[in-house]
Amino acid sequence: MISNKVDQILESVSQLHPMPTSVTRVLKAFDDPLANGSYIAELIGLDQALSAAVLQMANSVSLGYNLNCSSLKEAVMRLGFKRIKTLILGAGSSGPLTRRLYGYRLGAGELWNHSVATAVAAQWLAQAFSFPNPEVAYVGGLLHDMGKLLLDQFVMVDYARIVEIIDQRNQPPWEVEDQVLGIHHAAVGGLMAEKWDFPVILVDAINYHHAPSLARTHPELPAVINIANSFTTQNDGTIHSLFDRTVHPEALQILKLSPERLEKMREEINHYLTYTRSS
After folding, report:
1. Using 50, 70 and 90 to split pLDDT, how confident is the model at 234?
2. Domain check: are 82 and 185 in the same one?
3. Among 147, 214, 213, 212, which Cα is nearest to 181's?
4. Quick one: 219 and 84 in the same domain?
5. In which band, very low, low, confident or very high, does the pLDDT at 42 lie, cut at 50, 70 and 90?
6. Domain residues for 27?
7. Does 235 share its domain with 223?
8. Among 18-22, 36-40, 99-103, 204-208, whose mean pLDDT is lowest?
9. Among candidate residues 44, 17, 49, 47, the one with its CA nearest the CA of residue 29
């Protein structure tokens, strides 16, 4: 029975729509040795959502950009191709996060709000631990639950059973998904990321955010997302029992983070998220 469900889920992954043309056009341009900043900016400018995302990142105070940046060409030069590529991947994949998820009992925008809060917290944590690419943590946080978009229809069928097991055994929701469905949302998200040719570091950040030690490279990134996810889940009143509120012990070990420092960071992130939402 479970094997049939897994087959259906994997089939759903294989039938995923490709990235939007506007996104693939820009990504292909990065592989062209003759492409310069002006050309990349011109391609980004053809898509309103991509343009807004790039300008927002280029003006992010949290990344240390204090001078206002108003043109896409300047934004591309400021951020660099590596950051732009990661950002484009996130922007091209995040649109569906705003829709309603009937299986997970989430209204329109609830998954998106949680994802954005996790992204901001992950970026903050990445900077706190002096990671060289905090924007990768941001995109990983933004997309960490994208597997739920595809898994939603299967959760809908087994919702009552999943919630019952969570309540009875006090197990993390992702483990119960694995038991009931044969695969959990993080693994499905990793498969989706591979389908869309995401870099390994981002695939692992999504795939292993509930088990960071399994990451093939840079386990500190899924560890950061695991902590960011737990922080934002615990402080978001709209999120209920199908969202994991626990910090995996592996995350603390990988980041060499004591329980005392963890609680201190929780307070700091709460303050930061509150400030971000009000500004």
Report:
1. low
2. no
3. 147
4. no
5. very high
6. 18-93
7. yes
8. 18-22
9. 44
For residue 185 the two structure tokens come to 């949302």
Which amino acid is present at 257? L
The span from the CA of 109 to the CA of 241, in Å, is: 17
Give the Cβ contact number of residue 48 at 10 Å: 9
Neighbours of 277 (CB within 10 A): 11
Length of the chain: 279
Tens digits of per-residue pLDDT, 209-218?
999 999 999 9
Pick from 75, 72, 70, 76: nearest CA to 47: 72
Question: Can you give the pLDDT at residue 66?
Answer: 62
- Domain match, 177 and 114 both: yes
Handedness of CA 37, 43, 45, 51 (dihedral sign): negative
206 and 145 assigned to the same domain: yes
Average model confidence (pLDDT) for the chain? Answer: 86
Q: How many independent structural domains does the chain possess? A: 2
